[in-house]
Design goal:
The model has no long low-confidence stretch (mean pLDDT about 85). Helix 3 packs parallel to helix 6 (about 120-135), helix 7 packs parallel to helix 9 and helix 9 packs antiparallel against helix 14 (about 295-310). A 4-stranded mixed beta sheet has the order 3-4-6-5. The protein is built from 23 helices and 6 strands. It has helices spanning about 1-10, 15-20, 25-30, 40-55, 75-115, 120-135, 145-160, 170-180, 190-205, 215-225, 235-240, 250, 270-290, 295-310, 315-320, 325-330, 345-370, 380-390, 405-410, 425-430, 435-440, 445-455, 465-470, and strands at about 260, 265, 395-400, 460, 475-480, 485-490. The chain is mostly helical and about 500 residues long.
Length: about 500
Amino acid sequence: MKNLFMKIKTYHPPKYICLLYFFVPIFICTISNLAKENDIWFLLNHGEYVLKYGFPIIEPFSMHQGFSFVMQQWLTSVIFYLGYHYFGRLGLLIILEIVNILILYFLYKLCMLLSDGKYHISTVISCIVDILLLTHFILLRPQIFTYLFLIIILYIMELFYQNKNTKAIYSLPLLSLLQINFHASMWFLIFLFILPFLVCLVIEKLKNKKDNRIFLLLGILFIMFLVGFLNPYGVKNITYIFHSYGIKHINNTVVEMFPPVVLGAFKTSVGPMTFLILGVIVSIYMFYKRGQIRLRYMFLLAGVTILSLMNVRNFALLVIGSLPFLAFYLKDIEKKPKKNDKEIPKNVKGNYIAVLLFLTAYIITFGMYYSSKGLTNYLEKGIDILLKNNDSKDIILYTNYANGAYAEYRGLKPYIDPRAEVFLKSNNHKKDIMKEYCLLNFGILDYNAFIKKYQFTHLIVTKRDFLYQKVAKDKRYRVLYKEKEYKIYERVTN
């Protein structure tokens, strides 16, 4: 083990060779299976609607009437729709790749700042963080922009705290404006990520009366808050999170809202990863850099740890708010870079060029593949048949939580879709459909009463649905179409 550590410590390839490692996460992002991201269907629907009709205040996609509605990720939806409309799958892939490259770039910049320019350790940590995000979280969702903005904010705040670039602080209101329009439900996170630096600047002010940076930061934070009102829905966007999260029916249904540990057991694979990362970080803090703890990093770690233990989705916040700062604690592993490290050694130029040509050819090949096809969904054939035999206006459709978005994309108006918070009474001010859906699937709500209430003309059910066995025995319905994964039923009698 000691020999392995020494080999790692003495391994110092030139800077340009280190940067080749960035192609690993870029490569992983390129081969992402875009079709598996279910949320893309309602995002494309949202983007098209905004460009055609403007910002809706009444929910226009489901079967329910008069639901108050806030499209809290409207700008993300528009960008996704435009990319897909003009370039197909390739357009979505390009958007995802650009955001991922920007995440990598600012991770690297942050790590370089923390490590005093040690590019070996900065490269490795940046790649590890990005690959961890790619496993579950860098998807075609609004959150990818949130992750990018949070990393940029950490970089700016570290610059500001170290007094290396006080002008960068003036860009924070712009990030606040972008966040509230790209992904309003996570807008408050940008303030939470700034909070550790704010607390430490208060402490610095108490130590040094001449240090007035705290007043500049407070002024910037006030402007950031005011800028948050510059969105199509005003205060409704700002307060969206308070009506949408911490709801037990969502937490029991949506996988990403599960806590990583339930009754002492791991609920998903993210659970053990969470505790593994925390164990690594605490071990390094305690044993490797004892006596050199930075309060702002500890406060940030405490905050993201609490968030990560609340639900699976917040694992990404733990990764972003903790792992990059290991560049500070591990920077002494790496020796200072030599002056000629920026030059490409003659003996590796050929390999460097060959790798670049290979990756370029690969990306072009995959680009041709993605541009030749649109997105697909496993319900596609069944819904084709459903629409062929029926006018969409006459269809009263039941779908489960996962399948509703694609049905809406095809012009149907189903019972529910993956936008869980839209179906909360606290948001729509009409009915708590999410609660009703959960009670139905837990077997608490009477099946016949549910069917009678909505008089569904068609139902799309999968084997995981509570209704799968129920409707199979219901003589009021017959199978219109079936595949291995699902069945479509149509009503034949009242």
